[in-house]
Amino acid sequence: MDLSIVIALYNEEESIPELLSWIESSLFSQKLAYEVILIDDGSTDNSWNVISAEATRYSTIKAIRFSRNYGKSAALYTGFETASGEVVVTMDADLQDSPDEIPELYDMVMNGGYDLVSGWKKKRKDNKLAKNLPSKIYNATARRVTGIKLHDMNCGLKAYRKAVIKNIEVYGEMHRYIPYLAKNAGFRNIGEKIVKHQARKFGKSKFGMNRFINGFLDLISLWFLSRFGKKPMHFFGAFGSFTFFIGLATSVYLIIDKVVSQAQGLKFRAVTDQPLFYVSLVALIIGMQLFLAGFLGELISRSSSERNIYKIKERLNSDAPSSIQ
Questions:
Q1: Same domain, 253 and 147
Q2: Structural domain of residue 39, as residue ranges?
């Protein structure tokens, strides 16, 4: 299989027929063996019935239906598990991503030497105030933290070498940071392509302003996990030891100062009467707690493995098991 196209969708019944027709016309002259993997992420409209009807028209379709809405990361994870193409392209189902970009994205991966190529919606058709400005701030922060110079980290239109999607784990809401996950997995040849962005034709966006807040929080989590996920003691232990040392040194200083003043017959205050003594005690307690947190984190990271299990309700033209683990 040359190409797999993974499409995560939620309540896109109106867009699906036009999207599939557009994909077929875009790839008709390319002489590529391809499959279209549709992941219905628990849609509550007629999307699955539309997919079932379209599957009788196109032999290239594989479809998976979740029993409920798990989120885009879960859908992409399942799609990546199912994909068999040497190049895997992801795109949204809302017709804002153009399938005409797929041949060039495929060529950049297969012949251009890229492990991953991310789309850049340089000229967006969204509301400028509501999406463009937050998107620019978000992407600037992501570039700073990840070190990956992409203008549009969260663009749904991306192309991957097969080895990339088989060696990364997309969980939670980390689909926004797949390039960073790929980089951390050792795939550093990451490119970018300016792609055409279409205005939404049907329905409305499934994402609100809260995605930017969640995006920043996820970025911090991913940065922390990539740096300290396998060695939590390096973070908690370092801060815990430093805090404990400050508290201990302060306590010892106060005790010595009191003993020396008392021996010399000078006026002194009881150690327990000094506010600084209680600050030092708090520092000692916090330092011990941080150190223990790091120790427990080490035990957990070495003895547990995270398992993703998504309950799939139905499949079409797919022989994979009913649960992806």
A1: no
A2: 3-228
Tell me, yes or no, whether 246 and 98 share the same domain: no
135 and 82 in a single domain? The answer is: yes
- Tell me: the pLDDT tens digits for 151-200? 888 899 999 999 999 999 887 778 888 998 899 889 999 999 999 888 77
Question: Which among 37, 127, 108 is positioned nearest to 79, based on CA atoms?
Answer: 37
Length of the chain (residues): 325
Q: pLDDT tens across 102-145, in order? A: 999 999 999 999 999 999 988 876 655 556 677 777 788 888 88
Residue (of 95, 89, 90) closest to 15 by Cα position? 95
In angstroms, how far is CA 48 from the centroid of its own chain?
26
Q: Are residues 218 and 163 in the same domain?
A: yes
**Strands (DSSP E) found in 116-161:** 116-120, 158-161
Q: Which two tokens stand for residue 194?
A: 């300016």
Tally of domains in the chain: 2
Given a contact cutoff of 8 angstroms between Cβ atoms, the answer to whether 130 and 79 are in contact is no
pTM confidence score: 0.71
> Which CATH number does the domain housing residue 207 bear?
3.90.550.10
Q: Residue 310 falls within a domain, yes or no?
A: no
What three-state secondary structure class fits 69?
A: coil
Are 205 and 246 part of one and the same domain? no
Kindly list the distances between the CA atom of residue 189 and the CA atoms of 12, 110, 250, in Å, as whole numbers in the listed order. Answer: 33, 13, 50
Q: Can you give the pLDDT at residue 208?
A: 55
The DSSP line for 105-116 is HHHHHHTT--SE
123 contacts 197 by C-beta, under 8 angstroms: yes
Identify which of 40-49, 225-234, 284-293 has the greatest average pLDDT: 40-49
Q: How far apart are CA 27 and CA 118, in angstroms?
A: 19
- Asked if 285 and 301 count as a contact pair (C-beta separation under 8 A), the reply is no
57 plus 187 within the same structural domain: yes
User: pLDDT digit string (tens) for 256-287?
Assistant: 988 888 888 888 788 888 888 899 999 999 99
Is the pLDDT at 17 greater than 80? The verdict is yes
